[in-house]
What we know:
By secondary structure, the protein is an alpha+beta fold. It is built from four helices and ten strands. The longest helix is centred in the first third of the chain and has 19 residues, at about 1-20. The site of one 2-acetamido-2-deoxy-beta-D-glucopyranose (NAG) has 5 residues, from loops. Keywords: Signal.
Amino acid sequence: MKFYNRFVSLFLTVRLVKLTEVPFTSTQNVKMKDVLLKDPIELEEDLKYWKIIPDLLKEAPKQPMQAWWLDGGWTGTEAIFGNEINDPEITAEEPFWLEWKTNNDTFHTMMMVGIDEKPKKYTTFKEKQYWIIVNIKGFDFLAGEYLTEYMGPDPPENKGLLRYVFLVYRQPDKLKFKEKKISSRKDIYRTNFSSKAFADKYNLGKPMAINFFRARFEY
Length: 219
Ligand SMILES: *[C@@H]1O[C@H](CO)[C@@H](O)[C@H](O)[C@H]1NC(C)=O
Ligand SMILES: *[C@@H]1O[C@H](CO)[C@@H](O)[C@H](O)[C@H]1NC(C)=O
């Protein structure tokens, strides 16, 4: 089914390009594969600059990860360590591609969280979950187990640029997750989330790979 969606989405993109001749629009300033070559020291600097450390993490993951969306152009739009992606149409569907360094035998958990959602004061946790896939062998995320189906960021008006973070954890093994599954159409149950509490619950340790972008409300 997911593969089917992917084909449909590729097909539509190709059609869209053909029909409307969408001009080359890409916010990226780094080539696709370069993101995975990010120096760990620079990665840490970016995480501190955008205050992912300390707002979300205490220390920097060593590795970058890659996440890019189809955008109707030829190269896609990707998260590049704090870049702005302000086109909700691009991020409305889940990224077409995720990648990180792996021996391909390990199982991973991937979470995408919003860390500036500012939920009501009484909630325990400050994050909003946008996408959670577990038991991903290597980086074959389409074959992983979707706990929380993807929802594109929907930044509230007048809140400025909000941060959205992708986190990848190494699992000790293939695991049984007991979580409420959240469909892509459901916006409830997504706030009051903590990636750390989730990771602690399943002994995932600290995230091994990361990337993030920022988005603001657009009409
Ligand atoms: C993991 O799989 C990818 C894609 O098939 C491949 O490019 C990569 O070299 C593999 N990594 C290892 C360590 O085998
Ligand atoms: C937030 O989540 C925690 C942990 O699951 C739970 O104890 C708490 O009751 C939740 N708070 C609200 C307001 O939902």
